[in-house]
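Annotated sample (chain length 399).
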Amino acid sequence: MVNEDFLTMFHRLTSVGWSEENGVNRLALNEYDIQARKNLEDEMRAVKADIKQDDAGLIFGTLGSGNDNTAIGSHMDSVPNGGRFDGFYGVMSGMQLLKDLGSTLKNRKITAIDFTNEEGARFQPSLLGSGMSTGVFTKEFAYSRKDSDGITFEEALEKSGYMGEEQNRVKNQDITRYLELHIEQGPVLELENYQVGIPKGIVTMVVDNVSFTGESNQAGPTPMKVRKDALVAASRFTVAVRDMAKSSGKELTMTVGKINNFPNAYNVIPGKVTMNLDTRSPDKKTAEEYSKMAKEISEKIASEEGVPVDFKNQWTTETTIFDEDMRKEIIKSCKSLNLKYKELYSWPGHDAQYMNRVVPTAMIFIPSHNGRSHTREEYSSDQDLINGYSVLKRTVESL
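Output written by the structure step:
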């Protein structure tokens, strides 16, 4: 009955902002995100949870009393044309724990959390809400972030009705530990036939901005030998860093995922191309080393193509290592439930990496079918959803 209740709630609430054609477009604090938040608070009120919001828009629903407070959460905002499972699974699991354990709590509390703007799809950087709530970002920095329409994070919060109080921030509450249940967003668990993943931590991410500046000109009369084509340089760079990462022999990924081509017209030689390079590794030194090597490659290509390059670091994260004692409890839970588990690193970022700075933190993964995520094809089976929730529940009970 509990499993059926959880699945019913999950599939009902994840339908907000979803369509078969376009996936989920529940960007932070847009109309769909606000509706999902209202639905979550309705669920919290139904179990008589104490509901709070902080000044970063985080929603907290708490049951129980005492000084031991286990928080469980994730985010409900999505990327454009995203999937139904990313983030939402963790929020629904926290909500279900309030339902399942709320009436049995003695001298302890459980708090379910919905973090704001985890994806960074509307307001950059990602993890903006958890970063502000844990003190990583100042209020001035977070509130000044603008979306593509020039709307600031502060303005969106005020309009949404989720501008809460600073006193309710994570760092000001009595949270003892934090757990986040999430889809893997990669293919490893499914390919290797594991039912549960237990992240050791979250890899370092180095994000660089790369701009090649050439000369725009008419595509027809400009001879090939005198062109200064920024897109050619950018294309060579994209392939070069891909090949370098593939041949490195290290735990490493390098991705050019965002490109702006100016003037982006079929009959004009590209005059400027800007792109982001995303470099990740569990070892921070490796990530930084390969980012530096990418800079050298960009300069070599720029010289050969006659198009100057500007290579700047946007931000770098530290490798996050999760709490060992909590990970051991998760392993015990998997064994008691006869679920096959694998210890691994999380390659995407999560709110857990900032929560880890203020309280002991751990994560639990379930398989992503075909490793797909941030797309409408994102999928995890009902059985996998239940497996992950069962591990979470058993772990919270044991903690």
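Annotation: The first strand starts at residue 18 and ends at 19.
Annotation: The chain has two domains: 2-202+319-398, 204-316.
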